[in-house]
C-alpha cells in the first residue's frame, strides 16, 4: 500500500494497476487480536530481549541477528493450541484407519505451515513498532526517504481487500481499513471479499484459496489490466504496469 502511494504521487509509469492486500494489518486498531495486545503491552526493548538471537556458527548467515523461525511458529501454535491438538489427534486416527487422504492432507498442510524462515532483526523490530505499536501508515505519519506517505495519493490502482472470517492474527476489518484510507480512489475501483470459514492462513493457502480466492484474484487483476481489462480508466492508459 505504501509503495503504491509513493509511486502514484511521483507519477511513476510503473505504478501498479491493482493492489490486493490479503489479511494484512493496514490498521490494527480497528479490531485488535492477541497479536495487537501483545505488541501494545510490551516495550520494543522487551521484544528485542526475548525474541531475537544470532544465527549460530556453521549455518548460512552465521552471526546475523534474527527473529528465529522456530520462535515464530511456536508463537503461532500457542495462539490456537486446541486446533493443532485436535488436528494431530485426527492424524493419529487417520493413521490407525489407514485413511490415506486424511494423512496426505495433514502432512501437506504441516509441511508448509512449519516451514518458517528466520526474519532479519531490524525488519522484525520495525514491523512491531511501526505497524503494531505506533500505527504509522493509517495515522498518516509513515515516511519513505523523508517523504510522508499518504494513501490518499492512490487514485488509479484498483483495490481488492481479501480477509478471512476467522482470522485471529489480522482480524476482519484491519485490512478493510484500506478502503477508507484510499479516500481519493473512485468508489467503483474499491472492492472487498470476506471468505467464510477460514483463518489467517486460509486466506492464501488451502482449498478455499485454490477453489475460490485465487480465481477472484485472477479475475480482478485481468479486469483492471490497462492492456486487456474490461474496466476503462479515464485519461491516459498506463503502460508497463506492475501488479
Question: In CATH, what is the homologous superfamily of the largest domain?
Answer: Alpha/Beta hydrolase fold, catalytic domain
Number of helices: 10
| Second-tier CATH architecture of the largest domain | 3-Layer(aba) Sandwich
Radius of gyration: 20 Å
**Which series of helices and strands comes N to C?**
HEHHEEHHHEHHEEEHEH
Termini gap = 12 Å
Strand residues, percent: 5-15%
CATH class of the largest domain: Alpha Beta
Number of domains as seen in the coordinates: 3
Shape: globular
Main sheet properties: 3 strands, parallel
**Order of neighbouring strands in the sheet with most strands:** 1-7-8
Mean pLDDT figure: 91
Helix content: 40-55%
Class of secondary structure makeup: alpha/beta
- Poorly predicted tracts of residues: 236-243
Count all strands and give the number: 8
- Find the CATH topology of the largest domain: Rossmann fold
Q: In a few lines, what is going on in this structure?
A:
The chain is built from ten helices and eight strands.
Can you describe what's shown?
With 243 residues, the protein is α/β, with parallel strands linked by helices. It folds into 3 domains: 105 residues, Alpha/Beta hydrolase fold, catalytic domain (Rossmann fold), CATH 3.40.50.1820; 56 residues, no CATH class; 37 residues, no CATH class. It is built from 10 helices and 8 strands. Strands 1-7-8 form a 3-stranded parallel β-sheet, with helices on one face. Helix 5 packs antiparallel against helix 6. The radius of gyration is 20 Å and the shape is globular. The chain starts with a helix and ends in a 20-residue tail after the last helix. The C terminus is likely disordered.
